[in-house]
Amino acid sequence: MKHLWIRFGCFMTGYNYNILRNCSEAASKSVKKYTAAMLIVCILWFFIGFTFAHRYLSLSLPGCILAGVLSTVIIVQVEKQIILSINPNRWLLIFRSCLAFMMSILGAVIIDQILFEKDIEIEKISYVSERVDKILPSKTEELRKQIAALDTTIDKKEEEQRNIREDIAKHPTLIVVSTQTESTWVQVQGKTPSGRDTTIPEKRTNVIVVRNEVPNPKIKIEQSLDSTIGTLRQQKTKKEGELLHMKPALEEEMKANTGFLDELTIMARMLSASYVALGFWLLWILFFLFIEMLVLFSKMGDRSNDYEKTVLHHRNLQIRRLDALEKGFV
After folding, report:
1. Tens digit of pLDDT per residue, the chain (330 long)?
2. Are 277 and 116 in contact (CB under 8 A)?
3. Phi-psi region at 236: left, alpha or beta (left = phi > 0; alpha = psi -120 to 50)
4. CA gap 297, 94 in Å, rounded
5. Helical spans, DSSP H, in the chain
6. What are the residue ranges spanned by the domains of the chain?
7. In Å, how far are 125, 144, 151, 247, 290 from 243, measured between CA atoms?
8. Whole-number Å distance between alpha carbons of 65 and 52
9. Is the whole model's pTM more than 0.70, yes or no?
10. Both ends of the chain: CA-CA distance in Å?
């Protein structure tokens, strides 16, 4: 089990196990110490990456796990920059310190948005209400214009309908005059070319005038207008309902689509309004900062061990060998 832990520590820190197993216990303890510090940071950032993907990216469980693993891999690679540096220079220490400060702020922000979830929900009510009050006038103005246009159209249609009804009341029926022609053959007296009396057929056409009463055709127009007016009134009622429930609908929509930046703004308002929340948030930042700096402080507090001296010795031997080969070829 001990060798498995050492092997795992070498995997995490980047140490060479074949070299480490021939070194002293002090080198093994350094690996264990670095591994323990890295595990603390990795577990913390796995949780942060998993939670961020689940809460704000709405990923499935495999996607959230992948996000946590990626966060862990990034942290491991960053820590290796310090652990594998035998004599880290000042700029590397400054860079790692700045990176630790930024990561502590990011971690504290994400964790605090989970811890302050109930408080954020309460503050979100006033925040969303303020945003709704800003965009509500433009939304309602457009609906009011549409309702006014429908009112104008309905008034015109109703005026047209009243005129038609008055005409129908005065003239419920109309007289339609039609003519028919009938042709008949009659026998009339005539003379032949020789002057004799005779009867000859003659075609006569009679015109018959027929008067019929029919319903006023405007009755159908009035029925069509009545249906049109009913449709327009339904549209107006629907838009009036939308106007009446515009603010609650906008609030629900904004609450459902509140993102990371919105919650960050809400939390900033909370911190500026409450010294207790601000103090707790700063405490979390310091907590994350010290954890991020744990590996760095451990590296700075350690003296060079025999593992590092072995690595340097192998490097120097390789350099001498290369220099000897170079001189041999010259």
Report:
1. 557 888 888 888 888 888 888 887 778 888 888 888 888 888 888 988 898 888 778 788 889 999 999 988 988 888 888 777 776 677 877 887 888 888 888 888 888 777 777 777 777 777 777 777 787 787 788 888 888 888 888 888 888 888 887 777 777 776 766 666 766 666 666 666 666 666 666 666 766 666 677 777 777 787 888 888 888 888 888 888 877 777 777 777 777 776 777 777 888 888 788 788 888 888 888 888 888 787 777 777 666 677 777 777 777 788 788 777 777 665
2. yes
3. alpha
4. 12
5. 2-13, 17-20, 25-55, 61-83, 90-115, 117-170, 218-244, 246-256, 260-273, 275-292, 294-301, 306-329
6. 2-122+260-329, 181-215
7. 21, 8, 15, 8, 54
8. 11
9. no
10. 52
Q: Give the three-class secondary structure for 16.
A: coil
CA neighbours closer than 13 Å in the CB half-sphere of residue 303:
2
What is the radius of gyration, based on Cα positions, of the chain?
48
Give me 198's structure tokens. 């005779």
Collect all residues with Cβ–Cβ distance below 8 Å to 300 and sequence separation of at least 6: 88, 93
Calculate the CA 65 to chain-centre distance: 21
Tokens of 161: 């309908």
* Angle of the 2-13 helix axis to the 61-83 helix axis, nearest 10: 80
Q: Which position has the token pair 């246009």?
A: 149
What Cα–Cα distance (Å) separates residue 262 from each residue in 106, 115, 116, 226, 268? Answer: 15, 16, 14, 50, 10
The neighbouring-strand residues paired with 184 are: 204
- The tally of CA atoms less than 13 A away on the side-chain side of residue 37 is 24
Give yes or no for a contact between 288 and 107, defined as CB atoms under 8 angstroms apart: yes
